[in-house]
Amino acid sequence: MTEQQTPLDDPNETAQEIARGGSADVGGTAPDFGKAAANVLRRPAFIIAAVALLVAAVGLNGAVNFMQLHFKKEAAELSHPLGTISDRLGTWVQVSEDQPLDKEMQDVLGTDKYIFRDYVDERVCGSGIQHTFRTLTDAIRQANNPQEREEREKDYHRKLNEIRGKTPNAVVSLSVTYYTGMVDTVAHVPDRCVTADGYEPKTYDIVKWPIARDLPEKDRQDKDDIEVRYINFEDQTGTSNVPRSIAYFFHVNGEFNSSPLGVRQKLANLFERKAYYAKIETMTTMSDDKESARVLTDFLTSAMPEIQRCMPDWDKEHGRASKAQVAAAK
């Protein structure tokens, strides 16, 4: 026996109903949206809540515009590319060659604006040391195949490690990484990255070093000292006996700051239209904490004018006169 078909089950009748402007209420289960809307609108609580939400949305947008708040930051461009930092910083000369990171490492770093360099002190190694290393880096660049390049790179690192082994006070590694147009955590700091490599802090100090004394007056912030985080790490894996003595700090929105949290707070300032920060990090492989601090202070004193020259002009970014210009106008 076949089941008897109801009128609504007849596709012809359904099509006729739609053609007359009706609706195909299959099985009588489709909701009557007009009645539902009418029922909702008859409820005062719903109307009050909807009006309150509308007023809040309009009020929030109005407040944001009136107070000129900026939840999304614009980029602040460097005054000069980091690659223009001189290869000679006082008596310190660059012995490495600037090389781009591969895409995977650059993605992890989170920026394409960076330098990673090794500098050697001519007072210790002699005035011809830069030429010696240029010969080695030229050989790397001119290698005919990957195997030859790998051998030439070994020659370079062998020479650098030889100097580090005999006179560790003669070598400083410098990295400067630049980030802009974001409000984010400051992820890549030695506290986490070096520890992840199997090192543990032997000492961790927040200190002030007189490394701003050669900066232009407008950038010194009326003082010679800059606060840095100075950490001495020891290898815990047993695979290396080479310590790492690291000092780092930041330049964020026109000011120096040693705290990753302080940087985050500066970036999150809703009254600032633009935002940037640069991490300046230096390292020796010296086991003597005090001597390493002396060497890094000496190096950074020479390096800071070049690094600062590359940072954005924060007064110019705000369209206002610098302190020097204001003083000259008086």
Key words describing this protein structure:
single chain; 330 residues; alpha+beta; 2 domains; nine-stranded antiparallel β-sheet; 13 helices; 20% strand; elongated; disordered N terminus; disordered C terminus
Total of domains: 2
Number of helices: 13
Order of helices and strands: HHHEEHEHHHEHEHEEEHEHHH
Structural class: alpha+beta
Q: State the separation between the terminal residues, measured CA to CA.
A: 106 Å
Principal-axis shape equals elongated
| Oligomeric nature of the chains | single chain
Low-confidence stretches: 1-30, 66-71, 326-330
Q: Please, could you describe this protein's structure?
A:
The protein has 2 domains: 7-67, no CATH class; 82-315, no CATH class. Strands 1, 2, 3, 4, 5, 6, 7, 8 and 9 form a 9-stranded antiparallel beta sheet that branches. 42% of the residues lie in helices and 20% in strands. With 330 residues, the chain is of the alpha+beta class.
Layout of strands and helices, then pairs:
Blueprint: H1 11-19, H2 33-41, H3 44-67, E1 88-89, E2 92-94, H4 103-109, E3 114-121, H5 122-125, H6 129-141, H7 146-166, E4 171-180, H8 190-196, E5 199-209, H9 217-220, E6 226-235, E7 244-252, E8 255-257, H10 260-267, E9 276-284, H11 289-310, H12 314-317, H13 323-329
Antiparallel strand pairs: 1-2, 2-3, 3-4, 4-9, 5-6, 6-7, 7-8, 7-9
Q: Brief description of this entry?
A:
With 330 residues, the protein is of the alpha+beta class. Helix content is 42%, strand content 20%.
